């Protein structure tokens, strides 16, 4: 059986990656689900090939279909065992040769693969597998990206690609290719069989990877993977742009590097009117923003929907109508990049559709702004970027569905309309709208905090009581663990005497040991005497002492309970049980006195008390505890209730000792207090998770830039 070896170099501390073994569980899960899908596919394809054979028009076509049927039967006869073994080999190879500084799964052959010459047939096979793996990857792109992020985390990597993912589409295709190529058949038939089987898997793999991601979330492996949009559109546009570049025009890659960096950003705004055709292009965009139809630019007509309602990426529609081709090379690249940014925004599953619609109405103003000021791409503090980020973040943290009747929607819509009506070539309108929206959100948070604050004094008092009681429990732990003490007395110590000690600690405001209080010291002495009194008395001296001391012991117990407010009825009930315990202690048989033990000559004296240097072993921090320690006032959480509904709440207050957490939703309509223990339990069960707070447009710009760099 394969055993996990921790990597010698990781991208994160081990404390943040405690679930490495779950990768083996995922491997077995994927293997089982793919084997089941392949078994179904072989049966279905056999039936389809039979029907096609019966309808074949030529003997040659029928013969090829018969051979393909026979090949699929051969594959299906041993598909379960063969794929299980083949996928295991692919898993081990990728896990072993990950980019980590050390080997995660270390095999017998060390780190360096054997070098050998590769013939053209192997190259053809490799390309075929790569193309089919790409087909599988595109069929489950979103699920596969989340899976790669989580698997990279387990392996200690910052990132892995499809080819190095031990349970990714390439590993599946390689295992399946080896099965097909192990059959007695021509290369063309084997390639056809492989393509048919991969085609069937493409329809099911997204479900498989969705379930694997759910398994990893349940195992607390990166439950909050950052949403990533579908990739490819930026690189496709850039490829088209490069192919159309004329001699003497700037290289599109150089322009992209320029607009995504701070270089010359300040000068761009002053120079935009000097670019050929830019003024005319801006006039077209002004007309489109004002709702005018049938406008011309470069001899072509352009228009937006006449009702003024924006649906989807309208910049894409303008590009398809030829806008970026009519523009200058620099302006055309800016148009392509802004269109891609909005593609990514519309693909983000976390932003509610209602807010996507409002942000979508800013497409033309944002395009104009980006053409005037390339600093929009490089400056994270740009007012327009911050405004879009705040609009998205406010909608993501809105508690409940966001509708046109929501106050957030009404405020945001007013801001969007103001930009549509007022923005021409002066970007200060974005700064003014940003300030207005920040004021709205700030007022909302102050209102929510004020309503939640009415609970903080009660929660603070509850924490003081809980901490004081915990001090009592810790002080009494030795007695509570002593099974020689009668159960009725241990129950009294656990339920009543912890209250007595807690009251003594509260009296002097103590929330941590040691407690310096006469009442505390008296209560500890009284409980020690109580314990001594109920243990068996096996000598005459002990019995005589007990008879003499018993009135004092009872008087001290009663005084401590009365001082702590313990009810009279509870005191009487315990004392009636205590009589029976004392009688049993006195009935114990008298034991003979032990013979004195002479110490050995020069024997060292045995130390009393705990040995120096020995400390209790603390528990390793769990991911849940680490998440709790990272929470700060203002952090957003998503809480899932029993019905599966997600509530988004903001942390408004943490108690002084961090044992109580108070949350409120954005609207200030509800508040929720959770203890540290309960919150840790919810994190562990997946009922609670930190909300993604990375600004939307910053994330989108980074994703587009990563794709263009790739």
UniProtKB/TrEMBL annotation:
Per the record, where are the segments of Pro residues compositional bias? 593-610
Q: Where is this region: Disordered?
A: 227-252, 593-620
InterPro entries reported in the protein's UniProt record = DUF1631
Identification of the protein by name: DUF1631 domain-containing protein
Species name for this entry?
Aromatoleum evansii (Azoarcus evansii)
């Amino acid at each position: 059986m394969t055993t996990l070896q921790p990597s010698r170099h990781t991208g994160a501390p081990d404390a943040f990656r405690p679930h490495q073994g779950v990768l083996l569980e995922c491997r077995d899960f994927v293997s089982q689900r793919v084997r089941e899908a392949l078994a179904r596919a072989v049966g279905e394809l056999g039936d389809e090939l039979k029907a096609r054979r019966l309808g074949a028009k030529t003997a040659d076509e029928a013969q090829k279909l018969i051979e393909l049927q026979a090949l699929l039967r051969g594959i299906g006869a041993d598909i379960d065992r063969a794929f299980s073994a083949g996928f295991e080999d692919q898993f081990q190879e990728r896990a072993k040769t990950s980019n980590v500084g050390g080997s995660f799964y270390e095999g017998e052959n060390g780190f360096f693969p054997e070098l050998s010459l590769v013939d053209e047939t192997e190259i053809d096979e490799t390309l075929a597998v790569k193309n089919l793996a790409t087909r599988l990857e595109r069929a489950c792109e979103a699920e596969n990206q989340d899976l790669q992020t989580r698997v990279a985390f387990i392996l200690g990597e910052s990132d892995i690609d499809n080819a190095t993912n031990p349970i990714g589409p390439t590993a599946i295709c390689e295992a399946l290719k080896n099965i097909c190529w192990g059959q007695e058949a021509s290369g063309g038939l084997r390639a056809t069989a492989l393509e048919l089987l991969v085609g069937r898997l493409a329809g099911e793999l997204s479900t498989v990877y969705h379930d694997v991601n759910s398994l990893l979330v349940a195992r607390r492996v990166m439950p909050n993977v950052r949403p990533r949009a579908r990739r490819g559109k930026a690189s496709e546009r850039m490829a088209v742009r490069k192919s159309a570049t004329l001699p003497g025009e700037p290289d599109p890659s150089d322009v992209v590097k320029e607009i995504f960096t701070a270089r010359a950003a300040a000068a761009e705004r002053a120079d935009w009117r000097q670019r050929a055709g830019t003024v005319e292009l801006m006039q077209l965009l002004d007309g489109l923003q004002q709702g005018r139809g049938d406008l011309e630019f470069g001899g072509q007509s352009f228009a937006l929907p006449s009702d003024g309602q924006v649906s989807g990426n309208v910049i894409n529609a303008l590009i398809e109508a030829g806008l970026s081709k009519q523009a200058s090379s620099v302006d055309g690249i800016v148009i392509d990049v802004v269109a891609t940014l909005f593609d990514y925004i519309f693909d983000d599953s976390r932003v509610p559709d209602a807010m996507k619609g409002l942000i979508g109405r800013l497409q033309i103003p944002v395009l104009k702004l980006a053409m005037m000021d390339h600093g929009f791409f490089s400056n994270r503090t740009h007012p327009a970027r911050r405004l879009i980020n705040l609009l998205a973040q406010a909608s993501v943290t809105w508690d409940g569905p966001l509708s046109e009747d929501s106050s957030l929607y009404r405020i945001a819509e007013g801001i969007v309309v103001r930009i549509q009506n007022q923005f021409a070539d002066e970007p200060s309108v974005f700064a003014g709208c940003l300030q207005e929206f920040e004021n709205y959100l700030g007022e909302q948070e102050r209102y929510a905090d004020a309503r939640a604050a009415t609970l903080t004094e009660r929660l603070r008092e509850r924490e003081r009581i809980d901490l004081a009681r915990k001090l009592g429990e810790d002080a009494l732990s030795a007695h509570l663990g002593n099974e020689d003490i009668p159960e009725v007395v241990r129950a009294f110590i656990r339920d009543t005497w912890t209250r007595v000690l807690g009251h003594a600690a509260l009296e002097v405001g103590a929330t941590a040991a040691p407690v310096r209080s006469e009442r505390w010291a008296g209560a500890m002495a009284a409980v020690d005497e109580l314990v001594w009194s109920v243990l068996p008395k096996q000598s005459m001296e002990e019995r005589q002492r007990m008879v003499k001391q018993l009135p004092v012991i009872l008087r001290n117990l009663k005084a401590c309970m009365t001082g702590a407010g313990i009810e009279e009825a509870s005191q009487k009930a315990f004392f009636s049980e205590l009589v029976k315990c004392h009688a049993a202690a006195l009935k114990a048989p008298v034991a003979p006195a032990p013979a004195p033990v002479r110490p050995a000559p020069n024997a060292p004296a045995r130390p009393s008390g705990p040995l120096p240097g020995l400390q209790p072993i603390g528990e390793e921090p769990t991911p849940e505890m680490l998440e709790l320690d990272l929470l700060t006032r203002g952090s957003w959480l998503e809480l899932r209730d029993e019905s599966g509904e997600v509530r988004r709440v903001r942390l408004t207050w943490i108690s002084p000792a961090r044992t109580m957490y108070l949350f409120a939703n954005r609207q200030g309509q509800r508040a929720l207090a959770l203890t540290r223990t309960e919150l840790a339990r919810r994190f562990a069960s997946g009922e609670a998770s930190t909300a993604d707070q990375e600004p939307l447009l910053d994330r989108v710009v980074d994703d587009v830039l990563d794709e263009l760099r790739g």
